Amino acid sequence: MDLNKVNSFIENKIEENLNLDYKASGSLQRNDAKTNEISKDVSAFANSDGGIIIYGIKEDQINRHLPESIDPINRNEISKEWLEQIIQSKIRPRINGIVIHSVSVDEQTNKVVYVIEIPKSNTAHQANDKKYYKRFNFNSEPMYDYEIRDILNRTKSPIIDLELEIQKYTYEVNQQNFVLPAFTIGSNGMYQKAEPAKKYKTNYTLRIFAKNNGRVLANYVNAYIEVPKKYLDEDEEEENGISNIFMENTIRDVVDSTYIPTMNGGYSSPKYGPSRYDPILPTRSFLLKSIKLYESFIGSTDILEWNVYSDNAEPRNGNICLSEIKIFEK
Predict the structure, then answer these.
(1) Same domain for 200 and 300?
(2) 19: which of 40, 44, 139, 221 is 20 to 30 A away, CA to CA?
(3) Is 103 helix (H, G, I), strand (E, B) or coil?
């Protein structure tokens, strides 16, 4: 996080949302009213879906919730260490994983912007006023009893999300059947052995992982992802040009790895046992499926949508633009 990234929020008019909040420099003051407000806002993010609060950006006075300009903070008066201490001392229980970035605006005058990254928590956090808050319509609102209970139940069920990557693999094409004349005339006028020009092919594979972001073992995982049929380099059932692909965390164990010669000179494949579910431990991932893609997906703005069902947990869903999926060279 640097000044360019902070300025990009202003230049691109990024509106506040569930995961983003702007605060002017006046929000950081050494009095109970302001420090209680800090505990309220930070705990609300942790109790909701996580996100970032940027202290040091003034909101537009006409178009509410849009950033107007940088409103820097004097680090000599309000230090990063002081802000961290307020967050840790006024919220119960403490929130693990908070990161505070001090972004320098002017080194000579010690002007900074503080960017706080707040993770989604697996428990409910209480602000200094003894209330529990959540993010709702750009604001931090008190939570109902059932909402607090829902958050506390996060530790009783697995939290499965899908993580996607695209693997790029380039290889040389076998040209054994490509016929060339045995010899050609070189630049020196002499005959020399002809060598075929090397040809390469690139394959793209969409790899879909189930990531357990909860604290409980996931025994059974079923998932569906919608992928436009035009990008699939394999047969999948489709409806209106969209393939709804089913996945689950099953594996088959090898029960006999003996390779037996066959009549055509090859070897038989190993024998596998019946399919079984492979549990996913907390913080671990499981490869659900690999799908071959046509190269035409590059630069696409199409959205992939997914749904996940796991044990006794509430169904989860999400989406990602094809162009936002990272591509890795194999």
Answers:
(1) yes
(2) 221
(3) strand
- For residue 178, what are its two tokens? 């490509």
Give every CB contact of residue 106 below 8 A, 6+ residues apart in sequence: 72
pLDDT exceeds 80 at position 117: yes
Same domain, 170 and 208: yes
Same domain, 17 and 70: yes
Choose one of 156, 191, 211: the last residue of a domain.
156
Residue 292's beta-bridge partner residues? 205
Q: In this predicted structure, what is the pLDDT of residue 259? A: 65
Q: Can you tell me which residue has the tokens 């707040």? A: 118
pTM above 0.70, yes or no: no
Q: What is the DSSP letter of 18?
A: T
Closest by CA to 22, choosing from 68, 84, 76, is 68
* Parallel, antiparallel or unpaired: strands 221-228 and 242-248: antiparallel
Confidence of residue 122 (pLDDT cuts 50, 70, 90): confident
Give the span between the Cα atoms of 160 and 18, in whole angstroms.
21
Comparing C-alpha atoms, which of 117, 213, 211 is closest to residue 163?
211
Residue-range definition of the domain harbouring residue 231: 160-329
Determine the pLDDT at residue 98. Answer: 95
Whether 76 and 46 map to the same domain: the answer is yes
How many domains, the chain? 2
pLDDT band with cut points at 50, 70 and 90 for residue 213: confident
* Pair (235, 317) in one structural domain: yes
Q: What is the pLDDT of residue 53?
A: 96
Q: CA 88 to CA 82: how far, in whole Å?
A: 10
Are the CB atoms for 97 and 75 separated by under 8 Å?
no
Amino acid at 74: N
Indicate which CATH number applies to the domain containing 94. Answer: 3.30.950.30
Q: What's the whole-number average pLDDT of the chain? A: 87
**DSSP per position, 209-268:** EEEE-SSS-B--EEEEEEEEGGGBSS----BTTEEEEEEE-EEEEEEE----B-TTS-BP
